[in-house]
# Entry
Amino acid sequence: MNKCYLGVDIGSISTKGVIIDENYNILKSNYIWTKASPIDAVKELINTLSIPDGYKLSGIGTTGSARKLIGLMLGANVVKNEIICHATGTLNFYPDCKTILEIGGQDSKIIILNNGIITDYAMNTLCAAGTGAFLSSQSKRIGVDISDFGSLALKSTNPVKIAARCTVFAESDLIHKAQLGYKKEDIVAGLCKSVVLNYLNNLAKGKKLKEPIVFQGGVSKNVGVVKYFNEVLNTKVIVDPNSHLMGAIGVAILSALDNSDSKFNLNINDIKFETKGYECKGCSNNCEVIRIIKNDKLIDSFGNKCEKGSVNN
Amino acid sequence: MEKVIAFPLMGNYFLPCNYLFSKLCNAKILVPPKITSKTVELGGKYSPEFICTPFKYTLGTYIECLENNANILIQMGGGCRYGYYFELQEKILKDLGYNFKYYNLVSKGNTDLKLIYKILKEINPKLNIIKALYFSFITIKMVNYMDDIDDYIRLNAPYQKNVGLLENINKEMLEEFRNVKSFYKLRKSYRKCKRKIKNIELKDKNKKIKIGIIGELYTLMEPFANNNIEKILKDSGVSVKRFTNVTYLLFEKGKKSKKYLKNLKNIKYKMGADAMDNIYYTKYLIDHNYDGIIHMKSSFCTPEIGNMGIISKMCEEKNMPVMFLTMDLNTSNVGFETRIEAFLDMIEMRKKNE
# Structure
């Protein structure tokens, strides 16, 4: 029986899952919305990703902002941060890649590689400037579906100038320009360009972006943003057809490399998973502790600053 | 009215403070409650918007102490904007309607023993100078001993075979320090502790990651202000070198920083607070083959903002991984942990491929 590995990347906006074989080929994949409930999203994801015949599940990896929670739920053998996963996944397809640009829902990252080793990275710090969340909130304001955003942006010949750096200023700029009577496609193109400039100003500051440059994450599906990256960087950035799945592929590879002996199964439908948030009153910290309950049994808790909020209490 | 003395918190240093004041001041000492999100909220509420974070922490602690009937407050700050905390905090607290006396033990960034004696005499007019000198000496030694043990634990905790042994020995020593009667007793319990920790068996040191943490002093020394970074690093099996401690700041900085400045060819000025010292530490960490540097500061810390450019250039030239973290009043540490985890993973990858 051949071995296969599951990688799940649970982001703030979308949940991605892949099943790969021993040679890291993708057997199955899926991409669904998280809708602010990672547990339900993962249940839905697992139901659509059945293990192919003739394969045995030999590893599960989780990454993304809900990696801890889902890692517990699935019994994952690898729970890794997004940076390492994205780099591992990308290097599998582009071994000579030097720069990875990644724009996701709430995070954006830049990863600099040298001979397959991460030598530097940066993540956005405080605000949502230059992330997918900004684009999707603005798409609602303009009344254009986010999936049509890129193609509409390509139609524009004269993108409006929108303040790059801070989303609050970008938004007020956008409203003013719209009131002045600019065409919708010009505004959409301006938004795409502002995401690119924002990203480069915030994250890539002081870093040398060497080619080949790979662009991934949910926003890489937006052809408008890709166009302006090419224009601003004066090069051609590579966008893989599976660019949105890179994190999930990376963590699946890491779980394969882990060579775990434990038994994995995906029958999570019968298992009742619950998370309960409560405010610990042990001291004036008032930690918001999340307790994870599997079949009415408390298995873990996190969010506590001290022992008072731990599982034992 | 009964005198109740209170002081701000910074790591374990409340212990020597408590000791000194209780021996010399003939007053009740209020050991401030641990810093919690409530403290931070209180401090943030009454602070100017763009002040650095230690101001908010200490102000919050003062308010909590004043609510618990403290009426004499002690501040120990100088060097950068810290030097103005005293006047500004006094004004804010008076405006809030509290009635108290407020003393700054550090003047113009220097430890002035005469001034400290004058202040102590004012609090306790019956103070005997011989007694004052003797207990000050014990307190200074206590700080030195604590820092010495702390340095050793930070460097070696990840190598111990049974987790927590070193920390327990340290706890025992601190407990003994609390009520120590004489210098002889203090030195005895320090030596006992030192002997015990040296006897603890350590594993092979070569496999683990070594990291230096540098940056702004308060953020480095108060665990609540730095999201408990030392514990996170220790739990990930990282040996940590930290230069900044009270021994250095109060008693060694004067001499050593002149030496540091001479050693740095491109730096001509001290740049305020510990900015120049941190540049020297960067050089030290690079020269001693450390695996990475974490630079931490509170937001709006001007001296540290000044040295960030220089440090990142130095690290870039020598191919040294460096991460800059800015701490403010945020209390969620999920994003913080992701960044540290990724930083350590990156270092591990680099190490494997060397």
The two ends of chain A are 44 Å apart (CA to CA). Chain A has nine helices and twelve strands. Chain A has three domains: 2-87+248-258, 95-238, 273-309. The longest helix of chain A spans residues 184-202.
